[in-house]
Each structure stands twice: as structure tokens, then as C-alpha cells.
Fold:
Amino acid sequence: MMHESTKDGAWFAPKRFGYGAGVPIAWQGWALLLLYVASVAGIALLHHAGTTGARMAALALFLLVTGLFVVIAAKRTRGGWKWRSGKRD
Structure:
């Protein structure tokens, strides 16, 4: 479901309650979310390879991919990340 126009460059709507990003509101947000989920699925396959080296690499990749996702989502959320208590911005 698309919300307001994304002329402001936002890819994600802000959460109404709490801290962080809500649902994607632009195709770029959906693409980023899909890429993140696919990356985590690939990392899970690497983790299940069984060797200690593969598991350490999977952990490092998971932390890297998750960190990148969080940074990009934070920069592309309408109004930024801040605590919200249900009121409209």
C-alpha cells in the first residue's frame, strides 16, 4: 500500500508508535527489504555449511548486512528515526 507521495525521497514511513522505520512507501524501500531478506537467507545457508569458518563468516556477514540495512533505512525514513507515541508528525 502506497502512502503519501515520496517526493521527499523517503523510502519508508515512520512507525506510529516506538522507534524506527515502518513499512516501505517507495519501490526502493521494497527492493531494499527484499535484498535484505534474500541476503539473510543466503547467509543462513552459509551458516548451515557446518564448519567453524563458515559460521564465523556468516555471523560477520549478518552483522554487516544488518548494519547497512539499518543505516540506509534510518536515512530514508520520512522524518527520521525518533520515538513516536501515536501522534502525527
Observations:
- The CA atoms of residues 40 and 62 lie 7 Å apart.
- Residues 52-75 form the longest helix (24 residues).
- Strands lie at 12-14, 17-18, 21-24, 84-85.
